Fold these 3 entries.
Entry 1:
Amino acid sequence: MYGRLPIAKMLAATLAMTAAISAVMVSINWDGQEASTAAPKIDDLLNVMIVLSSFVFSLVVVMLFYALWKFKAKPGDESDGEPIHGNTRLEVAWTVIPTIIVLFGAGYSWSVLSDIEKPADNPLTVDVFSQQYAWSFGYPGKDNVWSQGELHVPLNRQVQFKMHSQDVIHSFWVPEWRIKKDNVPGITTTAIVTPDKLGAYQLICTELCGFGHASMRAKVVVETPADFRKWVGGLTEKVPAPLAESVVQDTETNPVPVGSGGA
Amino acid sequence: MVAAIKRPGWIRGALGALLGAAFGFALVVALRKASGLPAYQTEQTGYPQVVVPLISGPLGFLLGFGCFDYWLRWAAGMPTIPEDHSQHGAKSWKDYFRFNTDHKVIGIQYICTTFFFFFIGGLMAMLIRAELAQPGTQIVDAATYNSLFSTHAVLMIFVFVIPVFAGIANYVLPLMIGAPDMAFPRLNALSFWMLPLAGLLFIGSFLAPGGAFDAGWTGYAPLSTGAPLGQSFFNLGVQFAGASSIATALNFLVTIITMRAPGMTFWRMPLLVWANLSTSLLVVAATPFIAGVQFMVLFDRAMHTNFFQFAGGGDVVSYQHIFWFYSHPAVYIMMLPGFGIISEVISTHARKPIFGYRLMALALIGIVVLSYSVWAHHMFVAGMFSWLRVPMMITTLLIAVPTGIKIFSWLGTLYFGKIHTYSTAMLFALAFIVTFTIGGISGVMLGMVPIDIHVSDTYFIVAHIHFVLFGGSVFTIFAGIYHWFPKITGRMYDEKLGRVHFWGTLFGTWVTFIPMHWVGMDGMPRRVADYATQFGEWNLLISCGAFILGAVQLVFLYNMIVSWRFGPRATANPWRAKSIEWLVSSPPPIFNFDEIPRVVGGPYEFGVPGARHAIMAGESVEAEAPAPTAVGTP
């Protein structure tokens, strides 16, 4: 029965279409500049997914258009198609093969996730404070100095952000770093990043927090350790008492497993 | 005048609403006075003198309108008429504005009401896209913008997509299984009349001090617990929409389980019936969660409970767990009935039995089971326990498998068929396969934690949700409306206008929602009234696509209205389909069947010589032939 279908040609068309779509889509840098050690790993995963997705999409399109071309009823033809009710082998195939593909995707994602969240030795801890509609940052290792609206971090050193919100949920996103984490009132959330490109970036609030949501931004600067030391040394204000209190009071939901990674 | 007040209907309904609201208002004022409090409370989140009448007023309307008359009469020991059909059928258009227990009338009431809200929600989308066409603020300020996208989403989800499927199934499903009506006709009517109340509460929130609710359709605490009064309108509107949905789902379950015609075994049910069975299972078990969580928010707002108040020991993240425990199954509530529609349309117009019918039904059940175990994929960056992410990722990716089975089975159904594309319904069904595949692919990507960390809460999410809800659900809704239009109205629609609508919708969908993926990955967050100038050109294109998409829906509206009035008469079975609703006249007689039909075979026996799905009363038995139902043998 299926011998009547040009399976080899359809498969060739699917692969050709997959190659064409992938070639265009993988060459485009969708996520923008990569400025952390996590970014290329996430982008690689995305590219693998683009290729797999192109295959699935091409398969569906080729199957659909071949059927429309080959099995379209002639005008005036009122007869029925062939009474095929199914094919167990085919049905098992399109249950099992997608299962294998998605489990591969899950395994790959899991390994990327553990990789990008692996704690390093001697990270720099930065407290992130958010409130409608402003960001500020505390440096507990540096006399708890406080910076408003501007975040500085040194190059090539892992930063552990400890996040606190004073009112509603906000979300910390630096697209070039590919990290995002909600700042939730009452709990401490953690995000890990190792910036590996000098430059100025933007911190964007991505959780709806009220009418000022769209403008809740902060400047992010990645600089050399020497410049960073100089900048931190120039900060005079200390983290104000209510913010410092939230650091103590907020529940730590996701403690970073000490010594599980680089230690 | 007195007679008009005594008779159930609009006058008594309006009176009931007024009395109900007055009672609620008086109750609040009296209780507050008795407790030594000032009569009114106008704290931002409180307003009990408004919130309580918002509950008692709609209930008063339902009472006055006649939704409870029969039950109250029975409870009071007054004489009731067991076989009273005075509220059955529709003789003029006015009967559609009455309490009516006929499933066909209720189906039409549902479809027209939900499309009314579809067009209002669509207008809001047009305003949103007009504002976003250029960076900066042009048309609405940021606060109004937040209200607009919140109301847009809530109208589309709660009073369009979910109930329009209930409307289509209300009309078609009893006919399909050979039942004279739904199992509980009076409950069915009550379910419908709660729906416009929910829609009015959502829209009415624009009149509240502080404006309409603006915390998104997700209403995350504590933004929602501290929001102005409009948020309470949302909390209550969800109760009416949810109650309507739950009651309808119970009704479908009982109808499907107990009222199938003789011979209609489970494995002879059309897939639309299977789809509504699965959907109803989801609704009855999941919808109480969103009803509950919105009450918890309302209690936090009005009674100073501390469910989600971190300062009072509440837990902020638990709102999201409860909310998504409903709202992820809800995306399947919004999709499974559409899967059913697509199966009917494709099988009919490809003149082929559904490929792998049993696996198709099992895939629906598989989705039902899995959909309860994936909710936290909405919360990968929400600060929940991080170990929860990987198991939720695996279940999320696995749910793509039953969904993929459905896509491949529809494609398999086309092979060796005789595909007819003259019907707009079939065009929407075929286009659905491609657009929904794209939505599914982006869904798999979102299921992967590392990718999700980058793109969650960006326009990538907006693109994904619209590809599955518009390119998915709404395409299936259009397919269903075109497919059953002749059956419901007894008229044919204009295929030329249908084609204009189809191609415009397909083009508009792609132009609007494809670029949203790109700006999202490149750094544009969602739910923003303003954005960085670098995204200006793409957003202008997106807005142009959206305006095309909006404008072409007017062609649909025109086609539906004019064809309903003036279209050529439809025959009983214009698509030469097999299921039972096509074996009765268009529109069907008032009680569907003179005698219940007898089901003798599977629902899609195209091309099987002599095979029949059902035999109507009065047909000769010689027409019956042994129906081969072999599954799995090509």
Note: The first strand of chain B starts at residue 598 and ends at 599.
Entry 2:
Amino acid sequence: MSARRNLILAAAAILLAAVLLAAWEHQVGQPPVKMIIPTLTNRPELCLTCHDGIEEISASHPVAAFGCTTCHGGDGMALDADLAHAGMHGGRNPADLAVVGVACGGANCHSGDPAAGRDHIQRVDRSIQATYAGAIAQVRHAFGAQPDLTAHMGVHAVQDDQVVSPDAVPSLTAFAPSATDPQPVQQFSVNCLNCHLWAQPAAKPYFYRSTGCATCHALYDNDGLYKGGDPTISHTEPGHASAHHLTTAVPYTQCDHCHNRGNYNLPHMAFVERTDLAPAPAAETEDATARRLAEYYQPIGQFTRCEWELDCVDCHTAREAMGDGDIYSSQADAQYIQCRTCHGTLTEPPKLAAITDPNDVALRQAQVNGHYILQVGDQVVVTDRGEKLGQVRWSGDHLVQTMKATGQTYSVPLVQGSACQQKPDEQASRYCHACHDHELQAP
Amino acid sequence: MAHKRPNFFYHLHPPTLPEREARFGYTFGLGGISLLLFLVLGVTGVLEMFIYVPTLTDAAESVRQITYLAPFGWLLRNMHYWAGQMMVGVVILHMARVVLSGGYKGRRFNWLIGMALLALTLLLDFTGYVLRWDQDTAWALVTGTNLVNTIPGIGPALYRVLVGGQAVGQATLLRFYAWHVIGLALVAAVFSGWHSFRVRRDGGISHAEPAGGPTPRAGREELVRTESIAALLTLAALVGLSIFVNAPLGPAANLTVPVAEARAPWFFLWVQELLRSAPAFLAGVLVPLAVFTLLSVLPYVLDRRETGIGEWFNRPGRLAQGLFLAIVIAVSALTARGLLR
Amino acid sequence: MTDLNERSADGRGPGPEVRPTIVGLPPHPDRREFLAWLTRGSLVAISALAIGQVARFFSYEPAGEAPSVIPVGKPETYTADTLTYVGAARSYIGRDSGGLYAIDAVCTHLGCLVEHSIGDGFACPCHGSRFAADGQVQNGPASKALRHLALDVSPDGQVVVNRSQPVAPETRLAANS
């Protein structure tokens, strides 16, 4: 019996040794920890241990200063995924409008003083792309749920203490159809609330996008695949931004994740997708110009050459797309850019303004974009509402437009001194299209 | 040939003991395993003290430094946690063995020391839980200390001593840290020594005295060998468990934010279940105290006979055994209900 | 069997004529010594290894009373018929036709923070107490209603909650929305 006893003892000792060896292996096998101590918080973060290779979010939010948890929340000192990601603002998207105030807000960040141009969040919350107030008002009016076309409801309730424009309203209540609403309005609320900044997109090619601020500023490829360097983000599962990157160099493809995707069918209260494009995005080898021309607008669109060679953001201003702080009842009230803003009229050249203040918003926009350079003293086009278009600059003898997404420059032809036959009071874009539509021969 | 003078370790053991009671299948080595786990807790705990910081701002972060940054810190923390939970289970099994085999007969004072050790083990586990300062445990601390408040008369004063102020905060964390690492641990160490000494002084491991004369005896080397096997296997199980199952860790505590789900530590789940349906003082203070008192007086009230010592399921002790098992079943049922919510 | 307490002729222990058969020991001294040496040696080696790893563990080097009157923001931020949880004051601030009111979120049972359930009322996650929208106990181990706390307006226009001053449930702070 004592020999058996010794055998058991030896076996137990060997078992313990084996387990200790397993512990050793586990320790040795752990990947090296990557720690950063961002200067804004001075608390260490280990996020890059797993997310090793993820892109810098932008030059204006360097990870050495911000770290990760300033914007994303979560537990920066944990290396278990569940614990590290607990408490993140908005899951993968801290720019979702439900959490953007916590994640991106702050007086020095994106919810500060309007005079300093730091009130992005307040403006976006009230913008037509977030409230969807125009569509809601039109449908409710069309089917008798409200007597006028003024917006009373939006996707979420918003309030504006300082109404500037005569077209704007002071507040909206949340759109919640009741059983007493006309049937089409109830159907509208079920089928059609897909295209605003709070809505989750359809999970299909061309439609993939994010929500909130990232809807526009986090670029998604048409196939919705991630192409960056973070090993924890799937490269095969669609529904990811192409890179962990925020940018103002927004190409037309980004806008087209919502716009130009099809049309509404009011009798059926349904959205009919356009069918002229291939179901999956085209391969890179195809002719880029032909693809751009085919993709940009739906086949029903009328547009001039600059309206498809340039990107949307090269004309449509920041205050149009992101809101100027007022709550508008329709897109027509929010959108105000016209051809003559850059091209002028027969009698007047385009209005210019000089940049005198080194803290001018236009200078900051140029720095953040990175594709065009502006300095104090430069003269740039200014809109009717006082917005400087920094990418359209007077070079001294001609007007230069630089594309925000690529940096390509164009010389802007002026109407004054040309053979254009426009009438002074017919300045809406449809009048220019009558002669300059891309399908017509150039006049 | 003269016996070699034993070293300290051998000296702690009796020179010989009855062979029947030296077998693993009599005691299952539960008392010894408890002691081993206590030693492991001490060693791993002291090592953790080199990094852990008991302040509101740094406690959660220092636990993560141990878990994710320090080499083998993860192993130390997991071993400390699992040794603690295993110890609660093992001491309860040890108590069961003592009750069901009539081991307390003739040694009732040591039974009381053992009950004190049970209380100390549970309090050590609870104070340790609190120290990791995450959302799950911080609320357990708030509720647990508020239970003290419900005691009539001395309750509020006792609460302030426990909490170190008017409400749970920095002082509470520091006090629970002091209780855990030295206040309760030192008392538990002394009582453990006393408990082990009393076993020897009461005549060695509780054993049956059959009528037919002296029984075969085993030597201390045999006993030590058995203990070594049990120790090695326990350590292997502990380290194995520590490699594959991590000690729990939740988001850092924030006492201004409500939680969706608040669960007591598993060994107090039965109290939480009682608290759902009965008044706080009754369910949280009186009933646990009553259960504890009932168990303590088993050998004084329910089984005073000294016959049947060392015999599993001995007849004189059936009442005590039955009551003990009833309490175990009731507490287990409540715990299961709490787990399944 | 031999009684080990039996003395040999000279009284110094079991005599040489009595060789005790103690269970469990190998009978040959040299094997015994070798095993003892082996055990001791292994223990020393293992301890050295363990101390080495403990040294590695050491090598890691790492880089008052709460106020009872708490400001909770401007009155305009609280819209009618909504209940807002303010963590700093651990209370729910609401507005109805009479004005602003504050309900203490600390459960009157054992101190957990209650959650606002869908619909009206509050539920406590710890032991299941339920309260109506005005704080009255609907269900559960709690026996006292949730406290209503005093509200006031500070000189700089902010609403302040006084956690040490409970008020009647009908009390309202008249403040424009």
Note: The mean pLDDT of chain A is 92.
Entry 3:
Amino acid sequence: MAAPQEHQQVIQQTRRRIGVALGLRTGVAVLSGWLLAWGILVVILRASLSTSRGPLLWGLTGIVVAVACGVISGIRRRPSLETVRALLDHYWHSGGLLMASAESNPAGWAIRIPDAAVPRVRWVGRRHWWILLGCGLFAMTSFLVPARVVNQFRPNRLQVGTEVEKLAEKIEVLKEEKILPPERAKSLEEALRRLQQEAAGNDPGKTWEAMDHLEQAIAKASAEAAADALRNAQKSAQSEELAAALDKAREQMNPSDLTTAMNQLSKDVLKAAKLDELLAGEIPDELKEQLEKGELTAQQLAELSQKLGECKECNLAKARKLAAARMIDPALLDKLDGQFQIDPDALAELLAACEGEQGIQMLLAEGNKPGRGGVNRGRGDAAMTWTGGSDRNGMEFKEKTLPPGAVAALKDAQLQGVSIAAPTPNSSEPSKAGGALDPTQAGRGSARTQVVLPEHRKVVQRYFERESSSGTP
Amino acid sequence: MTQNLEAAEGHSGQATLLSPDEISSATALIQRVLTQLDRTLLGRQQLHRLVLVGILSRGHILLEGLPGVGKTALIKALGQVLHLQFNRVQFTPDLMPSDILGTHILREIPGGGREMSFQSGPIFTNILLADEINRASPKTQSALLEAMQEGCVTLLGQTRELPRPFFVLASQNPIELEGTYPLPEAQLDRFLFKLNVSDVNVDVLTEIIATRRRGEPPVPEAPLSAEELQDLMRAMEQVFLPRPVCRYISRLVAATHPQSAEATAEVNSYVNYGASPRAAIAMAEAARAHALLEGRPSVGFDDVKAIAVPVLNHRLILNYKARFDQIGTLIVIQQLLDRLDPAGLKLPADLHIQPFEVAGR
């Protein structure tokens, strides 16, 4: 036999009340948490991404979630009927009769169970309500606070990503080409990374100054590397040309001249190898030994020529890579392009024609290129170059007061015509060049018309000891 | 009532509670016993109730108190009121197990033969008063173990049943501990209750002196017959123990163990070992008896609370920290009873249920 109906109803109602209270408690807690999280999210999004208020209102759906959480929690956490019955039995001091009535036949004891009254379930959640209110106000404030106030807290970042990326690429190129030592490259990369992190819009000058400094360091290293590469390439090209020319002309040259030329080649190559690590590594020890002796065979000469060519190409490739990375001016490569082209036939012809140790030394010491002007600066067949042409813009004639005699001469002058071209001298009449002796031609002119220059005036005055007149001597 | 025992389960398979009439007759018997005991020992009503609860639960009781407070008189009166055989053994250090259990003696039989015959000891009785049990050696104390648990005695491979019912009511003196052997925990656990017999107040003492020459208590009148005692025991069997109360008892016992889920701070701080499952069983039986004393056919949470202290107080083993802080088992158990929610609702602290006043029909 079940418990009386009214007891069962009371138990059900009590259970429901407890479930509602638990659900309300959970719902308030979840809602508080959501409002806090939502408010923080709103502030962050408005401050960092300048998000408008409209899309952020979707956060209101969290209220539905909180209510759902409350309902689910209330249903799941509400106590079982048996537990509620035990609770009421305890509160009503029924001595286990209410509990026993559910599990056994109460027989005549049912009437001894106290009157059913639904207990009052009270949640003392003042603290929770205050927290909810606080979180709600925070969320509301995060919405209502003006954008200009929010933006004050926005981190003012300086967008230097593109520049940093470019510099990083350049450092990478320098690292790949082993232009920079690894430690130096690492320190530059670290400096770049720190620069990007600390780039603040409030003080852009500092960032840009640091970036300029980095760029200058990179540019300097690039320029030095490019200069080295081009110089090495040029040296390699010269030596390659000489080696190839010697290979061609060795039959026509007498042995002493050949030895002299070989020594010069050895000197050039070893000198270049000291400056160019690549070249030093490329030349085998055996070849180097023979080179130092100046006793290269035709095959060795060909091999040396090939190695020199490879070194030249490597150096040129490095320079081209730097140019491709905009680290040096590509025009510089175009300008020097002709200098890396070798013409061993012409040099071989010269070597074959040249006789005597001194001649060979002069030929090779000056190199196979024209001189740079001057009697002691190489060959004389250098082409003349004109640089630095004058610019007429802004140029003016200097005004000069003509002496009275010249003015008088101008009065007698006759206008022959106006032309933009240079005047054609009239051969029939002698030219009237100015000067003190101009009027004193044989048979004509007079001292009266003699021109006394202003700087001579005082001398003339002292000579004649007379007072200067009003302007006319 | 005997017929009702068979009808303990109804047609639907559900247990049927004792009817109000059955409870009334049982309560009348109980009241008769209590009245007799209260008349014999003045001012010990609560102690008498607990002793009767122990007897109805078929448990053994350890009485602790100073000499002369009426321990022996109580047990003697109980034997008389319940009309049960009563033996008293004064435990001393030289007491041997055979002095309690009995021994085999060689005797001549008619016809010239000899045989070993068993001379039963004082344990073969209904109520055994083991006076100052802590003065006997552990060997002798242990001789009581089987008898207390199984209700039988095994000697020379032969097991002999003890008379039913069998109760051991032991007493021990909390002072003069020199030369005593404290009861081991295993033996303590076999006692249902440990009751403290305290001093009586001045009024009671005055009444004793004024009404009794040489302190001799009056002879109990109208003792219970064996059949009435059997009826009382049968009624005890029918007292219903609801499942939530079972759970409460289990939680209570589990909470006496340190670091358990519902252990209080006091338990965690001061208890070394908690109560055993035997304590839970004892608590359930004692709660049934208490409910019967209260005139109810089912056990409530208040019944459990009423008997929790005497059931648990000798089963909790406290640590040295408790001794330093002067914390006793009584405080630990009381804190546990105060803080453990009987219904096990596990509601948050800020959720309160306020029952309305109820009026009985």
Note: Chain A touches chain B through 48 residues (CB under 8 Å).
